[in-house]
Write a structure and sequence with these properties.
Blueprint lengths: L1 H16 L2 H9 L4 H26 L8 H48 L5 H18 L1 H26 L5 H5 L7 H12 L6 H8 L7 H11 L1
Organism: Vibrio variabilis
Protein name: Tyrosine-specific transport protein
Family: Belongs to the amino acid/polyamine transporter 2 family. Mtr/TnaB/TyrP permease subfamily.
């Protein structure tokens, strides 16, 4: 169980900071360090609170419940359709972004490492099939693969921070460019970077969680409310 908890934690962390590692620096570059920190902290708190509310709902449902069944149980048929449409719309947007970006990266790596040149369409199709097959096998396979990828991600991020650290100056940290409209453009990027809620039902099912497993999250949710 402890191994599953660790793997589930890494899945949530990987979902949260996956695309955000690239998107957040670009989105926040024009609004300054201090404003970026405040914006990210505020949206993290919002997304963490809503995630805890989802965990609360899972206390009153079977561990295999999906977002669809949770919405039907709590909100009824009308709420079920609204919630399902909203989640499908979000998942479509996220999948389109990941497939487009991942397919391009996959093609570049194939050509760089193996000297194989593929068309963007074919590379994107192969990338999508590989990811789809991994996900289809089950959460356990995703867990194992994610542990390897997350470790590599941490190594890469640590290396980048080590190389960039000498270039960090007080002037960069205290400057507030606040170019017109950039803070508005940064909000949806930061918001989606902390969006891991679609993974919660799969994680609960993977852990075969029961109400006693939600005791600590419940206390945290009460703390947020107070």
């Amino acid at each position: 169980m402890k191994s599953k908890v660790l793997g589930s934690t890494l899945i949530i962390a990987g979902t949260t900071i996956g695309a955000g590692m690239l998107a957040l620096p670009i989105a926040s570059a024009g609004i300054g360090f201090g404003t970026s920190i405040l914006l990210m902290f505020a949206l993290w708190a919002l997304m963490a609170y809503t995630a805890l509310l989802m965990i609360e709902l899972h206390q009153y449902a079977d561990h295999s419940a999906t977002l669809h069944t949770l919405a039907k149980q709590i909100l009824g048929d009308k709420g079920k359709y609204i919630a399902s449409f909203a989640m499908l719309f979000l998942f479509y947007a996220l999948c389109a972004a990941y497939i487009a970006g991942g397919g391009g990266q996959f093609a570049d790596r194939l050509e760089m490492v193996f000297g194989v040149s593929l068309s963007p369409t074919l590379a994107t199709l192969i990338f999508t099939l590989i990811v789809a097959l991994t996900v289809t096998i089950g959460t356990h396979a995703v867990d194992k693969l994610n542990r390897v990828l997350f470790t590599l991600k941490l190594i890469a991020m640590g290396s980048v921070l080590f190389l960039l650290a000498p270039n960090v100056t007080q002037g960069y940290l205290t400057s507030l460019p606040m170019q017109q409209g950039l803070i508005v453009a940064a909000i949806p990027v930061v918001f989606t970077s902390f969006g891991f809620h679609g993974s919660i039902p799969a994680i609960v099912n993977y852990l075969e969680a029961t109400p006693k497993h939600f005791a600590k999250p419940s206390l945290l949710a009460q703390a947020f409310r107070s």
